[in-house]
Amino acid sequence: MGTIVGAPARTASDRMSTAALVWTAAYSAVRVWFAIGNAPQWKLPGRDLLVPDWIAVAVCLVSAAALCALRGRPRSRLLIRSLWVLAAGWVAAAAFALLDVVAGLLPGLGIPFDLPGMLSRFTALGGAVLLGATAVAYQRELDPTCLRCTGRARPTDSPRWPAWLTVAGCLTRLTAQAVVGFGTTPFEGGVSTIVFESCFVLAGVALPLTLVYRVGRFFPRWMLLLPGAGVGVGITAYFGVGLLQMITNVLQGEPAYDDVGLPESFFWVAVPAYVAWGVGLSIATYGYYLRTRKPCKGCGR
Questions:
Q1: Who's near 182: CB < 8 A, 6+ residues apart?
Q2: Terminal CA-to-CA distance of the chain, rounded, Å?
């Protein structure tokens, strides 16, 4: 009797790349629908993403092409890196999601809450997560000795300079505000403002130092990882895009920032300070993740 050979089991990379391809198809259809004149009236930046609709469609197609190419060449490190670049690009395009979170949690600040825009931006962020997860799945399969991890050893300690970079960025931002006056902030007064300012200091000083010093071991991991990753990536994306826009405006002979009653020098100090804050916090959070993660059940690393 002949042996019946079943179809090979689907790997994690197959499943993740399929999910990411479904997202690219669905989201590109939404972007085309918006591009042909059916977009809602966005409240925050004039559009939901920081790129025009047709550019978003093009990036969806590039993402799909990269996924298909990687399925054909699953050991290509260049294609795996391209997924990380595309994921970062989608995070940057949806940078106003940071304002969605702040407006939703603290409505008293006066930041407009845009539900359709928030849904669109979070859908873009979901695609970034799928692209990153697909890249991780393929990275794991590059090491045939263990399909559970990427082979990274767990460090016993992490550098402390990212935390101090974060603190420096936060304090520089506060100093810039003190120079122009704290009464010039665009937020409305009340309890929401007090809560926001408290979280501002916690995320800029207490959180980064807790991530790199031993005191962080006394907290549940999620209590540090979730705000660290969310705030770090959010600030980096939002103000990183803002800094690029400022530089572009100056090169085109335009004001670096719209007239909001503050000198341009304030933005040239505050925005880079925010970028340093976000980058430092992101690196500190990743170091904390590596240092505190459990050993791999497959290889013990």
A1: none
A2: 45
Which residues have a Cβ under 8 Å from the Cβ of 200 and sit 6 or more positions away?
170
Average model confidence (pLDDT) for the chain?
A: 87
Amino acid at 46: G
Task: Read off the pLDDT of each residue in 197-215 and give the average, rounded to a whole number.
Answer: 92
pTM of the predicted protein model: 0.82
Burial of 209 (0-12, 13-18, 19+ CB in 10 A): middle
Q: Alpha carbon of 250 to those of 247, 264, 271: distances in Å?
A: 5, 11, 15
DSSP state for residue 256 in the 8-state scheme? S
Give the pair of three-digit tokens for residue 106.
Answer: 């603290």
The total of other beta-carbon atoms located within 10 Å of residue 264's CB is 13
Please state, in angstroms and rounded to a whole number, the distance separating the CA atoms of residues 170 and 243: 16
- The reported pLDDT for the residue numbered 2 is 47
Q: Is 135:62 a contact under the CB 8 Å cutoff? A: no
Rg (CA), the chain: 22
Cβ neighbours, 10 Å, residue 274: 22
| Mean pLDDT, range 61-65, rounded to an integer | 97
What H or E segment, with its residue span, contains residue 100?
helix 97-105
